Predict the structure.
Amino acid sequence: MNEGTLQGEARFRRRAIKVDEAMRLVMEALELGRQESVPLWEAAGRRLAEAVSATTDWPPFARSGMDGFAVRSADTALASPGAPATLRIAATVAAGALASADVAPGTAVRIMTGGAVPPGADAVVMLEQTTDAVVDGQPAVLVKRTAEPGQNIAPRGEEFRCGSVFAGPGELLRPGHAALLGTFGYAHVPVYARPRVAVLATGAELLPVEAPLAPGRIRDSNSAMVAALVAQHGGVPVLLGRVPDEPGAAAQAIVDALQQCDLIITTGGVSVGDYDVMASLLSFLATDHPAGKEASAASFASAAQTAAKPGLLPQDSRLLFNKAAMRPGAPTSAAVLSGKLLLALSGNPGACFVGFELFAKPALQRLQGATPEQAMPKQVTAQLAGSFTKGSPHERFVRARLYTENAVLCAAPLGFGKSSMMASIPEADGLIRIKAGSEGAVEGDIVDVIVL
Ligand SMILES: Nc1nc2c(c(=O)[nH]1)N[C@H]1C(S)=C(S)[C@@H](COP(=O)(O)OP(=O)(O)OC[C@H]3O[C@@H](n4cnc5c(N)ncnc54)[C@H](O)[C@@H]3O)O[C@H]1N2
Ligand code: MOO
Ligand SMILES: [Mg+2]
C-alpha cells in the first residue's frame, strides 16, 4: 500500500451514524470477557463469573450475642430484683470453645459474646443483669429478671441456609460480598478477568513523553490518558507506543495487539487527511470499497505482512462504523478484527476523551461481566448553567462541571472545550448532550448529561 492508495482510501465515502446507534453496534459486537479465579483479597470491585452460595448454615451454631449467662428461661420465670433466681455455674465458655457441661435445670453457663450456646439453654442473660454469688461453697449467679426464650441468642441458620445463593453471575462485588465470601470459605473467587487493552498512538508528529520538543512535533499525550482511563475502568493497559502514519507499521502493530489483547484502542489518523492511516486501514472492511472487500482485505493483510500468521485476518472481521454524528469525535471508527473489538479514536485529545467515554468504557464494562444495560454510560438530567451555541448539525458532547444548587443538579459547560483542547478534561465531571439539529441550548434548559 503506497501513499497514493492511502490517500484514496482515507477519502473513501463515509456515512455518519447516530451516536446511540454506534454505541449499540459496539455493544452487540462484544461477547462477555474471559473469566478467572482471583484471591478473595482482590475480588471486590470485580463482577462475579459464577453464582456463589452459602456453604453452611449461618450462623453455623446458636451463638450468644452478649457476655453473660446461658440459662433455661423457665428457671427465671419468677425472678425479680427482690427475689432473684439462683443458678449454679456449671461451666464457662469463651468464643471459639465449647462448654464442658450442658445447662441442666437450676444451672447456668458463663458465656462470652460469640460463644456457642450449650445444649439445654434457651436464653442468655447479660452480665449487667446478674450478681455473682457463692452457694454451698460453689460459684453461683443471681438473675434478677425473667429471661425470654431466645433472648440474646442468634439461632443457627438465622441469616443463611446452607446452599442459598447470595450473589449471581455479573454481580459487582462490594466489600460486603467479601465478608460473605470469607465467611463461606471462598479463598478464591470466580470473576471476570481484567481485559487487556492495547493502546496504540498513530502519528509521525508524536514524540515520546520524555523527549524534548522539536519543531512541528508534539508529545504523545493520548496514550497516557487512554491508559489511565483503561486502568480506571478495570482494564489492564498494554502500551504499544507510537507508530508513524504508515499502513504497514500500523497494521503490524494491530496484528500483534490482536494476539495479546482483548480490546484494541488506537488514537489518531481516522479523519480524511492524506496520512490518516487508520481510516485507510479500516476502509478495507467496507463492503462497497472501490477495490472490493476481498481485494482491500488482502491489502491490509499484506500491509501487516501476516503471511506468517495465516488466518488472523480477515476472518471474523467487519467494520461497525467509520463516522458518528457527534462532535467532538466525528471520525471515530470501530471494527471487529479477528473477533476482537478495535476502537479507532480521534487523535484530537478532547475527541479521544469523549470517544473513550462513549465507546471504550462501555466495552470494558461489558467485557467485565456487565449486562449491556449496565455497561452503557450513566445518564442524568441537569439544568444548564450557561448557554451553549453550536454550528454543526451533529449531536454535541460538552465537557461540564456538575454541582447541586438548591437540590437541583446543574451542569456548567467548561471553557477550552474544543476537540483539540485538553485543558478542561481534568475538570470534567460530565458530558452535556446537546441534541442533533439544534442550534444549542440556553441557560436553564434541562439537558441530558453523561456522568463521568
Ligand atoms: N478536511 C477535514 N479535516 C478534518 C476533519 C474533516 O472532517 N475534514 N475532521 C476533523 C475532526 S472533527 C477531527 S476530530 C480530526 C480527527 O483527526 P484524526 O483522528 O485523524 O487525528 P490526527 O489527524 O492524527 O490528529 C489530530 C490532532 O490530534 C493530535 N494528536 C494525534 N495523536 C495525538 C496523541 N497521541 N497525543 C496528543 N495529540 C495527538 C495531532 O497532532 C493533531 O493535532 O480531524 C479534523 N480534520
Ligand atoms: O469531530 Mo472533531 O473531534 O469535532 O474536531
Ligand atoms: Mg487526521
